[in-house]
Amino acid sequence: MSEKLAVAEAARFGRSSEKMDLPGQITVFNEVEAAADASVPEPTVEQVAPKRKPRPKGKRKEDIKDLPREVMTHELGDDELKQRFGDQGWKRLPDQVYYKVEAIPATYKVVEHHIAVYAAKDGTAVVKAAHPAELLNNSLASASLVAAVMNGKYGYPDNSASKSCLWDSYSAIIALRQNERGENMSKSKPKRISIQAFTRKYTTEGDCHTYLAKTRWPEGFICPKCGSQRHCKLSSGLYQCNDCHHQTSVTAGTFMHRSRLPLKTWFLALYFVTQDKRGISATQLALMIGVNYKTAWLMLKRIRAAMGNRDAMHMLSGVVEFDDCYIGGPTVGKKRGRGTEKAKVFVALSLKDGRPEYLKLCVTENIRKESVKSFAEKSIQLGSTVKSDACRSYIPALTAYDHQYEKFDPKTESLQWLHTIISNAKASILGTYHGLPKKNLQEYLNEFSFRFSRRGFGGALFDRLALAMVGSPLA
Ligand SMILES: [Zn+2]
What we know:
By secondary structure, the protein is α/β, with parallel strands linked by helices. Among the domains are: 59-141, no CATH class; 314-436, Nucleotidyltransferase, domain 5. It contains 17 helices and twelve strands. Strands 10-9-8-11-12 form a five-stranded mixed beta sheet, with helices on both faces. Strands 1, 2, 3 and 4 form a four-stranded mixed beta sheet that branches. Helix 14 (394-397) links the parallel strand 11 (385-389) and strand 12. The longest helix is centred in the middle third of the chain and has 20 residues, at 293-312. It is extended and about 90 Å long. The two termini are 44 Å apart. The model is unreliable at 16-34, 154-186 and 332-339 (pLDDT under 50). Zinc ion binds next to loops.
C-alpha cells in the first residue's frame, strides 16, 4: 500500500528532480529555473525497489483477531436469481469472504464481507452478489483506513477541529489536499481556458450565481447570522433563513459585498486577473471589461485585499528563509527626478525539499526586534526552522524558532532562492505598474505572493481567486 501511495503521490506532484517548465507558469519563476545550474549532473545511483518479504501465512487473520467485527452479507434477491438462472434453479455455494478494516475516528472494526455465490445446478454458470468496489484490491485497508493514514501523514496542522470530522472519508481527504495550495507542483495542472470558453461557461447571472454559491457554501447554504442550514430561496435570488428570517445574498459580507456590478463583470475581472501572470493594471482592466477606470481600480483593490486575506489564513512552516529588503521606485508625478520612495519589506519563503513553496511579503516601518517578532508570530508557525543572515535585530526576535543564521556572504549560496525571488518581485511589480506609491505597496505584494504561492494552478487559479473572494468574510 505504501508503494501504491508513493506512486500516486509521484504522479500527482511530480518528482523533485523534474523541471517545472509548464505552460502558463509565472514567468518570474521560470527565470529562476533558467538561472539554475542545469549542468549539475543528476545522481546516477539507481533506485532499487525494496524486495518484498513474503507475508507470513495467517498474519492477516492474526492482525485483525482482536478487533470488533461486523458481518455484512451481500446476497442476490430471488427475482434476480430467477432472471439469471431461469427455471432450472440454482444452489448456493460457500460464501466468498474478505475483510476490510474500517476506521471510524479512533475506532477500528473489522467488516467481514460475505458475498453470496450462486451456481447453476448444471454447473454452467456462477454468479456472485454485488458488493462495494475496493479502493485497494486484496488489501485489508478500507477507504476510511486509507483516509486516516493519509490524514495522519498530510493533515493540515492548523485546523485540528475541522480535521477530526474529516477522518471518516477518503474523498474528504482528497478534497482537503486539493483544497488549498497543496496541489502546487501537480503535473496535471488544469489548462487555461479561452475567453470564448469562459463566457460560454458563465453566460448568465444565474450561472455565476450558482458557481459562487457552490464556492461559498460547498456543503450547502449556511445562515451567516445564526448558522442554520434551513433556508428558502426567494425569487429575487436572495436566501432567507427559515430560523431567523435573515435575508442574504451570495456576495453579502464577502469581497464582492455591495457592488452594483453584475456578477458577470466580476467574473470577467477575475478571469483577466488570473490570465495574465504578471497581473493587470486598472487601465487595462477597465478596457477589457467595459467599466470606467475608477471602478476597475476599486475592483482590483478588492481583489488584492481578498488575496492578502486568503494568504493570511495560512502560516509558513518547515524550513523558512527570512530576510528584509527595499522595494520601490520613483513615485509617479511627485518629486520627479529627485529622491525615491522605497519601503522596507519583510520576506519569508518556505521551502519543500529545498525548493520554494509559499511566500509572504510584508511592508514594515522598520526592522527592529519588535517588528521582526510580530511579523514572525503571524507568518511562521512555531516549531519551524528559520534561516536568515546574522542581522542584529533578528537574533533576539526569533528565539521562539529553531533559528539558523550566518553572516551574509554573496559568494555562498545561503538564502539563494529568497534573493532570487526578491529581485523577481521588484522587477515584476515595478515593470507592470511603472512605479507605485508606497502606501499601496502592500496590496501589490499580496498579489505577487498569492500568484507565487499558487504558481502551479494554471487555469484553476480562477477558482482559487473566486474562493478568496467569497470564501472568507470581508475584513
Ligand atoms: Zn439564520
